[in-house]
Design goal:
CATH architecture: 3-Layer(aba) Sandwich
CATH superfamily: DD-peptidase/beta-lactamase superfamily
Strand order of the largest sheet: 1-2-4-3-13-12-11
Number of domains: 1
CATH class: Alpha Beta
Structural class: alpha+beta
CATH topology: Beta-lactamase
Distance between the termini: 22 Å
Largest sheet: 7 strands, antiparallel
Amino acid sequence: MVNQSISKNTRAGIVEGVCDPAFSFVMDAFCENFESRDELGASVCISVKGRTVVDLWGGRIAVDGAPWNRDTISIVFSATKGASALCAHMAVDRGQLDLDALVTRFWPEFGQTGKESALVSMMLDHSVGLPHVRTTVRKGGFYDYDYMVDLLAREEPFWKPGIRNGYHGITSAWTVGEMVHRSTGKRLGQFFRDEVAKPLELDFWIGLPTDRENRVAPMIFAPITDEVRNSRISHAALNEKDSATHYFMFNVGGFDPNSRDAHAAEIGSANGITNARGLAGMYAPLANAGELNGVRLIGRDTLQRMALCSVATHEDATLRIPTRFSLGFMKAMDNRRLENAAHCSLLISEPAFGHVGAGGSLGFADPECHMSFGYTMNRMGFGILMNDRGQSLVDAAYRALGYRSNAGGVWSM
């Protein structure tokens, strides 16, 4: 079918873009987010077999602010990790990086204080033992790549590398990032720009240029409610003062995601800036055997390995919920029945892989149905993984493709 132009009024502003009529469920869910789910400004984009079937945006860049337009971008927090992991797998595919090698083969300084046995794969699947650092991060430390690399090299791990996993929410910027840097000779931000964003013509940045700053919608934080205070992660962060969870939540060196310093830095776990079109565009080749429109990112064997579940646990050492990861990407996670864990699920299909960002942004590829998906927003929702806004869009997309149910924990035919 031919995509139809969309222009609809909602409580938060106009929703515009294009949508294939077969995916009208997604358009309806996107508009409903503005009407009843407290969406302020957002974008959603979906491609199937390389063809864009949904590209919508709407709302406002701030309360009582200007409209969110086609080229509005925003920080996507941990959805950035998908970009970092992709760069690492591209280095693997080119023979520059070996997932089964010792980290010290590429980064000799890392082999100290109990990290000598760490493997490259452990840097990607959150098992290397550095979910955060106990050393107090100096003010602005996250913006200084070399400072953080040196800090992690000297840091004692929370556990022997490989024996368990805990989400490396910030530190993967430098564990994964330095694997890309040491193996390719390019820092992560430059590698991503040269090898991914430019060839695919993506408006996606890890280190935002100054001349793009005026297009960024500032992030609005979720309110602190009783549900937040009583969550598993909050309880651990507040009551277990020497835990990875505590340091992850509180040892952040004054990081301000709305500052120019944060946007300009190279934090491959947390400060990617893009829109839904950028996220869906990055994952589109991965949903189509690693290549799209003459741009080849990875080969089929590499793609298969990056999609396989690498670690799964009943309690993530950082997030304090059951989690599942492939090498650098989130897999489907169903925690809907878990107490004190609201909005801590990601319901996609089993073959799919991608990454959620704090507040609810999401990008993923589903090689089974050749779908790539992106969603970004500027008003954060509560929860570690997906809230109702983003998940409703994912659900609508799978229904449009003929999937039957997610009652079993993943979307299935």
